């Protein structure tokens, strides 16, 4: 049975047999799915031109197995082309979603957030803070939300104090700030919770979120970070 047309984005693609590709899609209704795009490598195929990265699509698919068959794909109103550092940022978002999202589990609010952020990236109307807020949202939607407002004794965080933070644990208030990358100011943690970081707090927030994501990504490094660097 065919699905009705669904909003989607291409996260990843790889060649499959002589003329086809396996496409990893992030869809609004079904989350991340894998489909075979038959004949997509042929230049005359409609799928060859429509299956573009970082562009809003309408797609339908069919099948009962893990790997389903793409039936139709068309571009919606296209975004601008991505270039420069913004291209690296877009690849980073895609790789996070491809590596972390469970298949066939809908994430409608995360899909909307991704679509808005990607459009801002293509318009070059975005700052690095927006990436940090997306990472924070991604962790929350997957069930790994960070506690950024209360410590391990359920006391509200204090802006003037420092806290030891580890993935999966509530912040632990420390008496004296030591030279440790796991020590974060209460002011930064609260600003991150409110999505109101200032420039000085951004480096700390980046390290905290990367640490949380690393615990889920495992030892395999992200290829997109090489592009950023």
Describe the structure.
By secondary structure, this protein is an alpha+beta fold. Helix content is 36%, strand content 22%. The chain contains 7 helices and 8 strands. The strands form 2 sheets. Strands 1-2-3-5-4 form a 5-stranded mixed β-barrel. The protein has a 3-stranded antiparallel beta sheet with strand order 7-6-8. Strand 1 and strand 2 form a beta hairpin. The mean pLDDT is 91.
What topology, given as strand order, has the largest sheet?
1-2-3-5-4
Q: How much helicity do the residues have?
A: 25-40%
Mean pLDDT: 91
Task: Determine the N-to-C terminus distance.
Answer: 45 Å
Contiguous helical run count: 7
Largest sheet: 5 strands, mixed, barrel
Series of H and E elements: EEEHEEHHHEEEHHH
Classify the secondary structure makeup into a structural class: alpha+beta
Radius of gyration: 20 Å
Got a strand count?
A: 8
Which percent range describes the beta-strand content?
15-25%
Low-confidence segments:
none
Question: Which overall shape is indicated by the principal axes computed on the Cα atoms?
Answer: elongated
